[in-house]
Write a structure and sequence with these properties.
four-stranded antiparallel β-sheet; 2 domains; binds N~2~-sulfamoyl-L-arginine; 469 residues; Aminopeptidase; 15 helices; eight-stranded mixed β-sheet; globular; binds zinc ion; alpha/beta
């Protein structure tokens, strides 16, 4: 847990560092995504929350007449090379060029061309948005019978929120009766390690898909990895070869401040204790529950996937395993479920060395992912605060070595949860058995004796909806 001094530093930093629409609903089932770098550009623009949608365009214009036509259409020609012209154009200008009979060879976001966002050089092993999306696409291409990549919806600035699904019999939006589990990363922009861990988990599962333990899990489960819930904030945080300590998304608030805290925007006890209604605050809850397209996309995604039984949302930092409630100090009232939560948290704590506790033991905060997912969807939901343990060990920016060490510590908890997804309520019994059998503890299959789902390739079928709790 953070010391008061650490919390003070974070809080002191937060207001000064807290700055920075095209709302797009969930696409209804997840269509394949292209790497869309979105339209956000520089820090100064994000302050004004303008959207820069200028494009760097290459078009065929072999003679003066066609160059004039292009120029009249609003194309700012910067270079003429051979028979081609290059320059800056708005999307509507591209349409006008085409209407004028000019062949457009390429049109890419201007800032992608000239001001790519990336991590500071020393942290280059971290995946920016384009790299994370590309890795998911690569994994899907490497294992087409198992993996499918798709978008769960658009971010505020129009970026796809990419997902990878691992299911041997259902792809993309297709329903599945296999027990489902979801791993989420980076609700908070600056918590980049929380993108890496689910990404590496996806890669580990794909790379090891033929190993017996992993193969059994993959055959019997419906696994979703959504490593970058807040792509706009995350890209902004690494803009300009330095970090911005940005936490929220990139919503332009009415008072000209920027950002809603996505982990205060979920719709259960929304904007109560531990959430702020001040837009400048780093814990600003937004104008309404699910006002942000990123949280709305997660909501729609989970509502469409009634087979999902477990959710793990990765955050950083402090090395904690948190379970509901977070909005109140009271424990959840469902005794068997609470016993299962505690048992799972304790078992995972033995694997990664983190501290297990009720979320509100850290601090009371309302509107987070796990309270909503548990209360409204009945999904056993955990928050991991990944490494490091403290601000003095690197805080939000622990460097490249933290990626491998943190993944090594957190692989077993992830496999453990995947194994339990068929029936999380069996955790106390399963954990008691594995404790009596030292040496086998932590094996993925040890925790997954009960394999449900149809198990028949190509024959997935829908399941009944979860009731609310
Ligand atoms: O405050 C948060 O959203 C999470 N911590 S972080 O440093 N990553 O911002 C913790 C959320 C835990 N949930 C509650 N305490 N309700
Ligand atoms: Zn966080």
């Amino acid at each position: 847990m953070r010391s008061p001094a650490e919390i003070l530093i974070v809080l002191l930093c937060a207001p000064a560092l807290s700055w920075a629409s095209a709302d797009a609903p969930f696409d209804g089932g997840g269509k394949p995504f292209e790497i869309d770098l979105g339209r956000m550009t520089t820090a100064s623009r994000s302050l004004a929350a303008e959207v820069d949608d200028r494009l760097w365009v290459t078009a065929l214009a072999p003679d003066k007449r066609s160059r004039t036509l292009a120029s009249e259409a609003g194309f700012a020609i910067e270079e003429i090379r051979g028979g081609a012209i290059m320059g800056v154009a708005l999307p509507e200008t591209v349409d006008a060029l085409k209407a004028a009979g000019i062949e457009v060879l390429a049109a890419v976001p201007l800032l992608k061309q000239f001001n790519a966002k990336d991590f500071p050089k020393e942290d280059g092993a971290y995946h920016n948005y384009a790299e994370a999306a590309a890795l998911l696409n690569e994994l899907a291409a490497a294992a087409p019978k198992l993996a499918s990549a798709f978008s769960i919806g658009k971010s505020l600035l129009g970026r796809d929120i990419p997902a990878l699904r691992l299911n041997s019999s259902a792809r993309g939006p297709a329903p599945s009766s296999k027990p489902g589990i979801v791993f989420l990363g980076t609700h908070h922009a600056r918590e980049h390690l929380s993108t890496e861990i689910p990404l590496l988990l996806a890669k580990h599962l794909v790379d090891n898909r033929d190993k017996p333990d992993i193969a059994a899990l993959l055959e019997s489960r419906d696994i979703f990895v959504i490593p970058l819930v807040n792509p706009d904030g995350s890209e902004y945080d690494i803009e300009g070869d330095r970090y911005h300590m940005h936490r929220k998304n990139m919503r332009a608030n009415s008072d000209k401040s920027v950002g809603v805290d996505l982990n205060r925007n979920y719709g259960f006890h929304w904007c109560e204790s531990g959430a702020s209604s001040n837009p400048r605050s780093d814990t600003y809850c937004g104008t309404a529950a699910f006002s942000e397209p990123e949280t709305a996309a997660v909501k729609a995604f989970l509502e469409a996937r009634t087979n999902v039984k477990i959710l793990l949302t990765y955050h950083t930092f402090s090395e904690l395993i948190l379970y509901p409630w977070g909005h109140t100090e009271s424990p959840i009232p469902d005794a068997p479920a609470l016993a299962a939560y505690k048992s799972m948290a304790d078992a995972m704590a033995k694997m990664n060395g983190y501290t297990p506790q009720q979320s509100s033991d850290l601090y009371v905060a309302s509107g987070d992912t796990t309270d909503w997912a548990w209360a409204v969807r009945g999904i056993f939901s955990f928050t991991f605060e990944l490494s490091p343990k403290s601000l003095w060990d690197g805080g939000f920016y622990p460097g490249v070595p933290a990626i491998a060490t943190t993944f090594a510590a957190n692989l077993r908890p992830a496999l453990y949860l995947i194994g339990l997804a068929d029936d999380p309520l069996r955790a106390p019994a399963a954990d008691a058995i594995s404790e009596r059998r030292p040496g086998r503890s932590g094996s993925a299959l040890d925790r997954a004796p009960s394999v449900s789902g149809d198990g028949v390739a190509g024959e997935d079928r829908p399941v009944a909806a979860f009731g609310s709790r």
